Amino acid sequence: MELTGPLKSTFKANIFQRAKKVACMMRCRIILCTAVSLALLTVLLLALISPVPHDKNQSDNSTRPRPRPWLALSLYIQQPQISSSDVQPAVRSEAGAFIFHRRLTEGLENTSRVIGKAQGFIIPIEHFAYSGFNIIYLTFDTPDYSGSLSVQAKHVEHKDREELTVVGGTGSFAFARGLAVFAQTDPQPTDVGGTYHVKLQLQLRFPDRSHTNIPG
User: Fold this and answer.
1) Fewer beta carbons within 10 angstroms: which end of the chain, N or C?
2) Residue 82 confidence class, pLDDT cut points 50, 70, 90
3) Which family does it belong to (predicted)?
4) Of 88, 76, 84, 14, nearest to 200 (Cα)?
5) CATH number (domain holding residue 117)
């Protein structure tokens, strides 16, 4: 049946209104889907691009310089053997200078493995307490260590046990600092012929972690 007149106009108006509502609803759905998609994409991009947060304490620890490790060494300064061509006895001059050149060994026995030598020139007089001569040099030559230590002897009191200061070093002991404890194992009437047990507590600036402590 064909509509004519006012009915036809009303029918067309209803169809137009319905089409307009459908188009509006579709537009709203498209806008909503687009907004949701953009939000999800933004979250993913932020998760991928944003740096991983670091713990403040962890970052402080990473920038803080690490403490230098301590190295413990134990060795013996053997008493001079006049019969040996490599070892000279200690010599004391009239002015009181104490000159010595002795062997460093790994153990107490005189036949223990030689690991270096000890040399020094000490003037045990108060006026020379801060003299550059009052240094004991411990030189090492082993598979683990090659170098020397400088031990300051400005406050030597000639006791059975002396605590001296390590003020430097070379080679494996470059820029070393620490403490050197000298203990006489067989006290003698004079200070020129004893065997000394030396315990070193060292802090190395450039430690080699492949090195091991010399036991004792």
Assistant:
1) N
2) low
3) Belongs to the plant dirigent protein family.
4) 76
5) 2.40.480.10
Q: 57-83 in b/e burial notation, b at 16+ Cβ within 10 A? A: eeeeeeeeeeeeeebebebbbbbbeee
What does the alpha-carbon distance between residue 134 and residue 66 come to, in Å, rounded to a whole number? Answer: 33
Do residues 89 and 139 share a domain? yes
How much is the mean pLDDT over the chain?
75
Query: What is the pLDDT at residue 122?
Result: 73
Question: What CA–CA distance (Å, rounded) separates 157 from 103?
Answer: 22
The average pLDDT across 55-82 equals 71
Q: Is residue 120 within 8 Å of 136, Cβ to Cβ? A: yes
Residue 29 lies in a domain: yes
CA distance 30 to 38: 12
Query: How many C-beta atoms lie closer than 10 Å to residue 164's C-beta?
Result: 19
Q: Strand, helix or coil at 176?
A: coil
In contact, 180 and 203? CB cutoff 8 Å: no
